Amino acid sequence: MKDSSESVLEDGAVGSIDEIFESDNDIDYLRLVKTAYGSSTDYMSSNLRTQWERNYSNFHSRHPSGSKYRTEAFKHRSRLFRPKSRATERSKEAALITAVFSTSDIVNIKHSDESDPQGVESARVWKEVMNLRLKKTIPWFKIVIGAFQTAHILGTIISYQPWEYEEVETIETTTKTEYNPDTAEMETVTGRTTKKEVIKDGPRIDLIANENLRIDPGADWTDPINSSPYLIQLIPMYIVDVLDQMEVKDPKSGQPKWKKLSKEKIASYGSETMDSDSIRQAREADRQDPIDDQYTDIDEHKIVWVYRNIFRIPKKGDMVFYTLGSRFLLTDPVPLKEVYIHGMRPYAMGHTVIEAFRNYPTGVTQLGQDIQAATNDNQNQRFDNIRQVLNKRYFVKRGSTVDLRSLRRNVSGSITMMNDPERDVKIQKTDDITGSSYQEQNLFNADFDEISGNFSASTVQTNKELGETVGGMRMLKDPANMMTEYVIRTFAETWIKPVLTQILALERAYESDENILLAAGKKAKIEKLPENLMRAQLDLEINVGYGVTDPQARVTRLLFGMETASRLAPKLMQRAKDNEIAKEIFGILGYEDGSRFFMSDEEFSQFQQQNPPTPSEVDKQIASNEKIQVAKIEQDRLIWAERILSDERKKAADIRLQMNREDTQGNIALAKEAIDIEKLNLDKLDLKFKREDTLRKDAEIKDKEQPTLSRSAGTQKKGKE
Questions:
Q1: Which end of the chain has fewer CB atoms at under 10 Å, N or C?
Q2: Residues 119, 537 contacting (CB under 8 angstroms)
Q3: What 3 state SS string does 436-456 have?
């Protein structure tokens, strides 16, 4: 590889692919970064930038760039913006909070083999470790809301998940009294010891603005992060932080992690992408760009751009390195596995809408942008009309002496001076607004609510007949809930689950805080940590499912399931976990786990010791126990009686069955005899018919022979004569 200390790429030098990959050991990484950065920036500017700016404008209830309301012609006309986009986004955020933070367990981790007791215990420990990290050290609430908000507006959210470790050296001064043999006196000796203190040691989640991460446009839409041949993250950093990184030493080699540069070169090389970004300006709305505009005269506090680059190199795999802009190498490229032990690219890209074959799908805000614009037009035209109805338009004769200022103010009870009131001024009357304008507004509202999956008063007004009944209200609300749950589920599967999977991998690779592990083991009620804690095969699940936006429906569904289980499998309910059931119910209702409403086992035991039962209560308890025993004995007696009766019924049924079988066999024998007799009679009858037929045939033959014999006899008699 070329000498990186002089690896400064001149402006405009891009080069061909053959020049970049000159050989396996001599790759021009700066030229590679500049080429990839240029192509991805061109794609973003041509296809995404304008739409993202418009989405942010709609989110901030501002007319987007290029709108007619931002021209000089509409300077004095109504330019109101109805915040339908922002209202929808706020309702979706509220539903997300209900879905994600309704229970105390943020994640659920299971072992792949439930029959392995140590594996099951390991899963319980890691579950509590994740819950502790997400509640104590990671601002999970803000991160989830910010990620969902960005995905709702732009359609995509990107985050970076590293393990953060930082230690500082502290010098401690110690004083002690020692005996000095030379002076034979006790003397005070001052000493200094250097001690390292860990100030950061844990996972971190950083949300990245969409314009600050570049991927190849041709990456696979199902997994753009891992399928893209490169990732370039643009990181705004203060110059003082860059200088500090150049002083941090690698614990393995003892050399500085970043190559050293002067403050002037850092400011020069790191400001090449300091041009004001239109997406960032749209996100800031009416505010100034905090990154582009420098508000300090201290050079060390100015902002420069550092790139974190991951490039897939032939025969080497993913290589990670940092550059100052695309002009100076800050670190030598190293394999990804040397930087991230889990071997994964530490990025995640999530969505709220799935669109096949598109790396950057449409955001929910964009789905209703045209209806939002039509709603604004309808509102502003109606408002202009109301203004003209309430404040008439005047036509004044040119050159006439009329007090125009008084006429313009139109103050009640004022006097306007003019020469000829009949001909100098003419009042233009404007017809009032028709009802169709308000009907059109309701239709726009209903269309917007339908495409965005929102449920509001306009939805009820448009469907008055359904809205007048409780069942009708539920029929109107259910489709909106389904759309909301679809958006939340999509976000959870595409961003929350991949992010937490990476955090779990980081925990298993880097976690060394014994306090965290012991606290997790105690919460999981495990006295000794399992031996295979780091090697267990774990499956992570997120506690976000369907039907999560309606607490009452969730509780009703839980109760229905428990009641059904108690009917079909009564023995199963004997193993029910009371604590888990209470945690789920109160968590759905917004009280986390509900533990504060009930005493723990220790508190209940202590309460019983401090409040022993009185004699009357003991007698009542004994009587109650006796009643329970009697009831149990009676129940057992009834069960045995039922079993005996059941056996008797079974024997009686067997006897009846045997009798029926014998009767059936006798009937079959009688039937066979009857059939034989009938067959014999038929044979006799057939024989009789055969005899009669034979006799009849013999008679016929005789009848035929009788005339012949008579003629023969007559002939003989005549011959004699």
A1: C
A2: yes
A3: HHHHHHHHHHHHHHHHHCCCC
- For residue 14, the model assigns a pLDDT of 45
Question: In angstroms, rounded to a whole number, what is the distance separating the alpha carbons of residues 714 and 709?
Answer: 9
Average pLDDT over residues 388-393: 84
CB 266 within 8 A of CB 304: yes
So where are the chain's domains?
Answer: 163-203, 367-474, 550-604
Q: pTM (2 decimals)? A: 0.72
Tell me the per-residue pLDDT of 330-339, one tens digit each, with 9 for 90 and over: 999 999 999 9
Buried-exposed string 395-413: b where 16+ CB fall within 10 A, e elsewhere: eeeeeeebeeeeeeeeeee
Q: Are the C-beta atoms of 129 and 517 separated by less than 8 Å? A: yes
Count of C-beta atoms within a 10 Å radius of residue 677: 10
Chain-wide mean pLDDT for the chain?
Answer: 81
Residue 684 scores a pLDDT above 70:
yes
DSSP character string of 129-147: HHHHIIIIIS-HHHHHHHH
- What is the rounded CA–CA span in Å between residue 147 and residue 347? 13
SS3 105: coil
Q: Six-digit token pair at 336?
A: 């990804």
The neighbouring-strand residues paired with 323 are 307, 329
Cα–Cα distance for residue pair 273/277, rounded to 1 Å = 9
Predicted pLDDT of residue 1: 43
